[in-house]
Please model this.
Amino acid sequence: MKREGSSRSGRAIAAIVLILAVVASVIARHATMQQRRTATAISQRSLSSMNSYALALLLGGLRGPLVMFLWPSAETQKSERNLEDFDTKIEWIRLLQAEFDTVHIFQIWNKAYNISVQMANVGNKYTTILDALDYAHKVDRERPNNVNIISAIGGIYFDKFGTSSEKAVYRRLVRTQTLPHAVATPEQRRGPGWRRTQLDPMLDANGNVLEKYLIPGSIRLSDPRRGLTYNGSELEYLPRFQPYPNGLSPFALAYNYYNRARMLQEAGKQRHAQLSELVIDSRPALSLKNWAEEELIFARRAEIAAAGREAPEDDMLLDGPTADLAADFTFKTEALPQVKAALAAYDAAVRLVPAAHTEYQQHTDRYPQNLRTYEHHRDSLTATAAIAAGDRDFLASLIETDPARKAALHASASASYNAAIDAHNRLILRYFITPEMEPSLFPPGTTRENLQNVPRDIQIAAVANIRQRLSAGEFPAQAEDVGESLRPIARAQARLEAMKTLVAGVKAAARY
Model:
């Protein structure tokens, strides 16, 4: 009887175990499926919010082996163009090696350059570069005011969004997306599979920097030599040039972050892990130069669109399409917003140039070895400001209805166009001719180095000589560089002739 009772009891226990096993199997199956569905969300929420120090303690001695596995695994996936769970591995590396700036510098560059170029279209490339920015901002939140991270953010805006082969698309996207627009809610961002596809707005409806980007941090620095302060706010150096009705240029954002990096170096006494002090110090000036030039490009494209003409893809050829506008040209009513956008961009280019000159002067005072190179930059900026001022006032005159104001705009435009012609003549004669060409262009004793002593009419004649000889096939090596200045010279001359023709017509009409 005891044996039979024990047997029944054993069978009951076995049955219960089997039932529990089945239930556990079902639960485990559902849990596994749920885990697969939310793997991305777990990576983005749990992992990214985990304290890296706590993670290191949790892993203990396994931290090193895990990092040694993740690095070659991620690099192998990159080389094989297999990016499945690649971002998760990079996030683990970020958390496990949070204290190593060189790791973050590499991974920001890795995402923005190596990974983005593997994408099939420009949209996916842009999204991947935004991933690199998100990575950088995560590190910046954990370790704020770090010269390595801040300069890396500036580099993305300058190099990838500002100067890469897809720059035309990126510049337009950055400008558009820094203006007010709808964004994903916090709940949506925490959802499975959410990925950033656009920048968050940085400007309000008036084109001014949003207050949330100007909240000071816990740091205070000052650079008496430059008269600058630093308070750790995200976009501290952009209100100076606002408003931005056309959105922010990538070079504007590059200037902001590079200026922050320079302040952390100079006033905060930090040193970049890879770049020299000279390089960090030069970046704000270079950003301002490129910013001014990009505003001029934006303005030209807006003006061409407003005039109903076709713009060439090459930015270097934008001088031509509207150079022949008559001084009494009338825009269609629907084109006026584009006219206003062009006017704002021309004016921005003019306002940025003095600040750029100051940056270059302060940089070369400290690093005179760059003086010769940056003299060319500064002479080019002078020419940019002059032609932009002429274009601004000429365009404004076309929508001005008051005769006296129109005449004043014509006068200021004429002065600026003449200054632009002189500035571009000097660029050609100082930087784009060879010593062998000098005797046939200048009076005896005159060289490129003492060009300031050459009268204006002789400079104009020398450039006309160069233009004629280029047309005959001489100096092929100089043709491209000289052409960059001949085109705005031709534009300025056409506009001057247009205003002269209008004035002559008005006077003739008045006589009759």
In short: Confidence is low (pLDDT under 50) at residues 36-49. Residues 2-37 form the longest helix (36 residues). The first strand starts at residue 221 and ends at 223. DSSP finds 17 helices and two strands in the chain.
